[in-house]
Design brief:
The complex is a heterodimer. Helix content of chain A is 71%, strand content 0%. Chain A is mostly helical. Chain A has a domain at 115-182. In chain A, helix 8 (144-153) packs antiparallel against helix 9. The radius of gyration of chain A is 20 Å and the shape is globular. Chain A starts with a helix and ends with a helix. The model of chain A has no long low-confidence stretch (mean pLDDT 92). Chain B is an alpha+beta fold. Chain B has a single domain (3-72), classed as TusA-like domain (Translation Initiation Factor IF3, 2-Layer Sandwich). Helices cover 28% and strands 36% of the residues of chain B. Chain B has helices at 15-24, 42-52; strands at residues 3-8, 32-37, 56-63, 66-72. In chain B, strands 1-2-4-3 form a 4-stranded mixed sheet, with helices on one face. Chain B is globular. Classes of the chains: A mainly alpha, B alpha+beta. The interface between A and B is medium-sized, with 16 and 18 residues.
Chain lengths: 182, 75
Amino acid sequence: MKEFFLKISNNEIYQRLFKNPFSYVAGATLLAFFNVLTFVFTGNGWGVTGAFANWAVWTLQPLGLDVSTWPSFASEAAQKTLAGGFLSDGVSVRNLGIILGALLATLLASQFKIKKIKSVRQVVAATVGGLMMGYGARLASGCNIGALFTGTANLSVSGWVFAATLLLGAYIGSKILKKYLM
Amino acid sequence: MKEYRLDCLGEACPIPLMKTEKKMMDLQVGDMLIVMIDHSCAMKNVPEWARTQGHNVDIEEVDDGEWEIFIEKVK
């Protein structure tokens, strides 16, 4: 058995498919291809973070949260998605697929590792950064996937505006990072 | 011909690259820096940066999801 796995791990096709990172061009081509498929089959481009807001509602609704009067969930479509639940929301299922797919990819590459937390500073930065990214994605009606990737692919000007502000944010973010995390 | 180790385990992009860039400035020509990482995209961008600087680079997978990047300062 061990010999079999050793043999596989030295196989060139295995290494190219599962072990070594794809080139940027290969990755971009795959993303473009699957975005076209997504658009053809669902009528929408690829998006991620919109569903996270639904996940929050589904989690907090049993605890008494009522979002029916919130403008962002007021539309009929949004209410229908919320009422339909997780498995009827294609975007939620796809997000779960991304997480499971990433796990599968790292297992296939034999690179799975639970990483150590380095410092309290790192925890604070990750928490604050995550909250800001999530909140910002809601304000911008999308993240770097829904607003930038799908936006620019659809030749929407808003995608390019998002790109410009994203670069500005990344610039400021890297300055903060250099100051507090290095 | 000194050897330095830089522990970047548990650090995500772009911190390993930024720390490597900073550390390389302390090295003399001929010295070796070993960067320890467990973030797969650092396995791509750290060697890429070092090669564009003209240094000799070698990567070794030391454990599941753990690598050591050997960078020899050549100029």
